[in-house]
């Protein structure tokens, strides 16, 4: 299956949603150029309040566009950038990737997957009831997070809608994604 970038988004100010862009530039070790969450140390407000010296394992937020179709079926209208992601992809099961997977975006950029996004109550402020759609429980009671994955920029470069996404799995044994 061909995997691709379907949208890119960024915002220089704290806001739940991020406007779509024609392109974004990923900066090695930092994140999305001009995005409020770019940096070597954590930039998410709740993380900064806990410990501002933590490494930023959430430089780039990626969501699979297939989630939007699932949410539409449940009565929600959500599109690229609405949940604060930087890169929207199609044709790849992001949630099934192991920690350490390298995502080659376009001709140059490489993002290393660090873990799952841990969605917060702000999602319900965007659309009431949406949090229950992106966080649930499996039959065995484990928490299932569907609001995308996080990563760090290994190699910078420009990323545009239509760019190919190539997946490079880490050596085994693979570690499943956990919230970061």
Furnish the topology, listing elements before pairings.
Blueprint: E1 4-9, E2 20-21, E3 24-27, E4 31-32, H1 45-50, E5 60-64, H2 66-73, E6 87-90, E7 102-105, E8 109-116, H3 122-126, H4 130-134, E9 135-137, E10 143-145, E11 149-155, E12 157-159, E13 165-168
How can the largest sheet be summarized? 8 strands, mixed
Helical content (DSSP H or I, runs of 4+): 10-25%
**CATH H-level superfamily:** PK beta-barrel domain-like
CATH architectural label: Beta Barrel
Structural class: alpha+beta
Going across the major beta sheet, what is the strand order?
A: 2-1-6-5-11-8-7-13
Please give a structural write-up.
This protein has 180 residues and is α+β, with helices and mostly antiparallel strands. It is 13% helix and 31% strand. The chain has helices at residues 45-50, 66-73, 122-126, 130-134, and strands spanning 4-9, 20-21, 24-27, 31-32, 60-64, 87-90, 102-105, 109-116, 135-137, 143-145, 149-155, 157-159, 165-168. An eight-stranded mixed β-sheet has the order 2-1-6-5-11-8-7-13. A three-stranded antiparallel β-sheet has the order 4-3-12, with no helix packed on it. The chain has a two-stranded antiparallel sheet with strand order 9-10. The two termini are 28 Å apart. Residues 18-168 form the MOSC domain. This is MOSC domain-containing protein.
């Amino acid at each position: 299956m061909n995997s691709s970038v379907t949208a890119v988004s960024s915002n220089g100010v704290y806001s739940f949603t991020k406007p779509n862009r024609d392109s974004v530039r990923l900066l090695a070790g930092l994140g999305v150029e001009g995005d409020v969450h770019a940096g070597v140390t954590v930039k998410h407000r709740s993380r900064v309040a806990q410990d501002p010296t933590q490494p930023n394992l959430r430089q780039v937020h990626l969501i699979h566009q297939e989630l939007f179709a699932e949410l539409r079926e449940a009565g929600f209208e959500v599109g690229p950038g609405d949940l604060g992601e930087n890169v929207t992809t199609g044709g790849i099961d992001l949630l099934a990737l192991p920690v350490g997977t390298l995502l080659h975006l376009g001709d140059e950029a490489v993002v290393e997957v660090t873990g799952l996004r841990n969605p917060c109550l702000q999602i319900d402020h965007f659309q009431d009831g949406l949090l229950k759609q992106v966080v649930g429980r499996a039959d065995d009671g484990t928490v299932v997070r569907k609001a995308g994955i996080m990563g760090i920029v290994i190699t910078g470069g420009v990323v545009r809608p239509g760019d190919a996404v190539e997946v490079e799995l880490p050596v085994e044994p693979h570690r499943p994604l956990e919230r970061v």
